[in-house]
Write a structure and sequence with these properties.
mainly beta; five-stranded mixed beta sheet
């Protein structure tokens, strides 16, 4: 049977390169455009940058905040980007040849807390989450808040994600050790998933055998697989004492990808949850995204963004690859 693997340049030459701009500080978040070869990165310096993933060149750069940028997303149908900063502001820009301000607004009264967001796939909605408070914003109504959800989380919300199979629902991951599933129609959560023993940093939805599951990553050194029908954990992916900073379900391949604070990217089968590949990128991983129309995956880490290929190869499962300065082309902006 075929095995899905991530491979480094040292093994097969499929790590394409690394995008770096040392002037804007660490990369803390990333998103990839699904119809254009564009990557957006958010930085600890308050900068947001847009890169062309084919040329590995920066095409736009702007300082959106004096504080950390904690989340960035494309709103492709509007040709907008949206960024959340740690001072609880959401910033919206139109991207053409240059970045033009659309709006900027405060989503929570606090400061210096983690702020997350997600964009609805079809409706004019953006979710924000700051210090346990989730709100729904409608850009067709002049960015008015149309729903405030009950403050059920007791700590920072690290991730918000709309359900691709049921876009009226979404999930939230929190530093209070829980994952909650919500409906847009109700201010109360539908249910809570308990099982992690530390902060939950990330989550994603995926399908397996026709049923929907959720993967969550935590500071407890595990990623957990949740059966959303049974509302329980059915498998735990151990990370060998390393914090799981980001999880990602590939949209077209039966594979789950996890990134750790140890600088390792692990690729798992989403059918039997077996570890297929481990690749060292050399810095804590803070974002994973599939690039437009390909099996390439972008990996955001403190030092930049690495681009790698997921192939359909035999007999490579379980082996490890490593990348170092000599195996990655560093591209200056």
């Amino acid at each position: 049977s075929s095995i899905l693997v991530v491979v480094s340049l040292l093994l097969t030459g499929m790590l394409f390169g690394q995008i770096i701009d040392d002037t804007v500080g660490w990369v803390l978040c990333m998103d990839a455009h699904q119809t254009e070869p564009l990557i957006i990165t958010g930085h600890e310096s308050g900068y947001v940058q847009i890169w062309n993933s084919d040329t590995q060149k920066v095409v736009a750069s702007i300082k959106v905040s004096q504080d950390i940028v904690s989340k960035v997303k494309f709103i492709a149908r509007k040709r907008w980007i949206v960024a959340a900063s740690r001072d609880c502001f959401v910033h919206v820009y139109k991207y053409e040849k240059e970045l033009e301000t659309v709006t900027s607004f405060k989503v929570h009264d606090g400061d210096f807390v983690w702020c997350s967001l997600d964009v609805h796939p079809t409706q004019p909605y953006v979710l924000s989450g700051c210090f346990g408070q989730i709100k729904l914003w409608d850009w067709d109504q002049d960015w008015n808040c149309i729903q405030t959800f009950e403050k059920e989380h007791s700590d920072d919300i690290r991730e918000l994600k709309f359900n691709p199979e049921d876009t009226n629902s979404f999930a939230s991951a929190s530093d209070d050790y829980t994952v909650k599933v919500w409906s847009l129609d109700s201010p109360k959560s539908k249910y809570t998933l308990f099982g992690h023993s530390h902060h939950v940093y990330c989550l994603d939805f995926f399908k397996r055998d026709g049923q929907q599951y959720l993967i969550s990553g935590s500071r407890d050194d595990t990623a957990k697989i949740w059966d959303l029908q049974k509302k329980e954990c059915v498998h735990t992916l151990e990370h060998e004492y390393e914090v799981v900073c980001y999880v990602f379900a590939h949209p077209s391949l039966p594979v789950l990808i996890t990134g750790g604070r140890d600088g390792a990217v692990r690729v798992w089968s989403s059918t039997d949850f077996r570890l297929k590949k481990k690749l060292e990128v050399g810095a804590p991983v803070y974002g994973l995204a599939c690039l437009m129309g390909s099996e390439r995956v972008a990996v955001a880490h403190f030092d930049g963004v690495s681009v790698m290929e997921i192939g359909d190869e035999e007999g490579q499962g379980g082996c490890e690859g490593s990348s170092n300065e000599n195996s990655i082309a560093a591209i200056d902006s």
